[in-house]
Amino acid sequence: MKIIGTEIKANEISLKREDYQKELLRKIEGIKEKVREGGGKKAIEKHKAKGKLTARERIAKLIDNPNEFYELSTLAAFGMYEEFGGAPSSGTVYGIGKIHNRLCVIVANDATVKAGAWFPITAKKNLRAQEIAMENRLPIIYLVDSAGVFLPLQDEIFPDKEHFGRIFRNNAKMSSMGIPQIAAIMGPCVAGGAYLPIMSDEALIVEGEGSVFLAGAHLVKAAIGEVIDNESLGGARVQSNISGVTDYIMKNDEECIEQIRNLVSKFGDFPKAGFNRIQATPPKFDPKEIYSLLPEDTIKPYDMYELIARIVDNSEIDEYKAGYGKTVITAYARIDGWAVGIVANQRSIVKTEKGEMQIGGVIYSDSADKATRFIMNCNQKKIPLLFLQDVTGFMVGSKAEHGGIIKDGAKMVNAVANSVVPKITIIVGNSFGAGNYAMCGKAYDPRFIFAYPNAKISVMGGNQASSVLLDIKLKQEEKSGHKFSEEEKQKLLNDILKSYDEKSNPVYASARLWIDEIIDPAKTRDWISICLEVANQNPEIPKFNPGVIQV
Fold it and tell me: Phi/psi class of residue 250: alpha, beta or left (left: φ > 0; alpha: ψ in -120 to 50)?
């Protein structure tokens, strides 16, 4: 193994970079703090007046250590549904935590946000939580407190394959897979949503607050003329002692949470995948120095080896084909003791053995060829893959085309698509075009995908895209006889660039669940380690069969 990395000496450039990255992180954390307020102070006070805990308070009491909850999709729905007053965190909180030292997915409705009603993105978020539980064979705990579908948008959440009904289909599938599911009804549970807790293995209900029925009192009166109150219709005692729908009656939130912990404490052990892990060793360099490595402008170069040196144990790697295809780094390493295979874009300009210059961040035929072989090796050896994305795309031009860049790119995409070992992706900087696909973007089923605060996710860079869009706009307007002055052209270009940059921002991506979370670069090791521990819970790894490989 070789030790990589060099000491970073404080200078004007490194300090400027550090300040810039910390400011980005501060802004992201500020947005997250605001989002964690849910429906706001008044809504929280009203909620607590009923003797109820908030969604995040419930989770904090449920898990072993409140400081070790890995919340995901915190910014879901950020900037969306503004015409309805917004939906902070899409009215649902979910993530991964330990209950009696057992990893679990925990999903909690936030009733301070529109009474916990489901928006379209809420359904997508809940489906992602179930997907994580299914892919990694994790028990899942539902803390239910929801008024059901947000009716003004029912057409966008009800009928399609990836809409509300898929939740209950997944309940059934998880049950057949042997994945434990526990649901606590801690507030309303209405209409189709009533199936979620009742299709779980066991359902608890809080007396006086929890209720479950297919139709509430108002709808019952409108439908059949029967006059009845909600408690008599589907309250805790009715559904537990008369209908037998629920299994445990709880006095309050605290007792309910303690009962869930008791149930989980008695789970048996399940087989593991058996990924290799030894005693962890910290990197030789402080992970916080990653702030000083990343340039303010994501187009500018930097040395990816230096970043890797601040993530891997003892800053050591076994590099595969070190002198070939240098714009992609492929190496075996350990992160918090876990063995991993790293595929990372080198952002520095490199030279081939023949002395040809290659641009950092670009995938060439040789680097695609190398990455393909390395990915196949990791599948052969049952080693999880970590993709560190900072890619501007594949090489273009006559030389690249004549050299078969499409063929070599297809080979790499094939290997990524058919890889069966767990994949974790972190978007360190740029994630442009087909490079996003080859480096295991969201469409390629990474178990988890994260982004740094400075990440850019789009079909191409902002400057190139805005230039193309401006040209299209000018030609459209010129057909109608409108001539633009240079000043008008510049204003239009600036407007296009601003809009494009906003939509390539990681906050925009996180709001739409294109990534699982925006993470602090200094905590990269922690996130990778918990993801590998989660992935290790699923022992079922299919046979690797890449199909037809382009040669």
Answer: beta
CB contact at 8 A, 519 and 74:
no
Average pLDDT over residues 274-284: 98
Q: What is the 3-state secondary structure (H, E, C) of 11-58?
A: CHHHHHHHHHHHHHHHHHHHHHHHHCCCCCHHHHHHHHCCCCCCHHHH
Give CA angle at 397 (396, 398), nearest 5°: 135
Model pTM score = 0.94
List, for residues 207-226, the tens digit of each pLDDT value. Answer: 999 999 888 888 888 899 99
Strands (E), 124-217: 140-146, 181-190, 202-206, 211-213
Strand duo 350-351 + 362-363: pairing: unpaired
pLDDT one-digit tens code per residue, 448-457:
999 999 999 9
CB distance 76 to 121 below 8 Å: yes
Q: How far is CA 469 from its chain centroid?
A: 30
- Output the DSSP codes for 332-393: EEEETTEEEEEEEE--S-EE-TT--EE-TTEEPHHHHHHHHHHHHHHHHHT--EEEEEEE-E
Residue 476's CB: how many other CB atoms inside 10 A?
10
Burial of 329 per CB tally in 10 Å (0-12, 13-18, 19+): buried
Helix axes 405-418, 365-381, angle to 10 degrees: 20
pLDDT tens digit sequence for 289-331: 999 999 999 999 999 999 999 999 999 999 999 999 999 999 9
Please return the burial class of 268, using the count of CB atoms within 10 Å of its CB with bins 0-12, 13-18 and 19+.
exposed
Kindly indicate the confidence band of residue 465, based on its pLDDT and cuts at 50, 70 and 90.
Answer: low
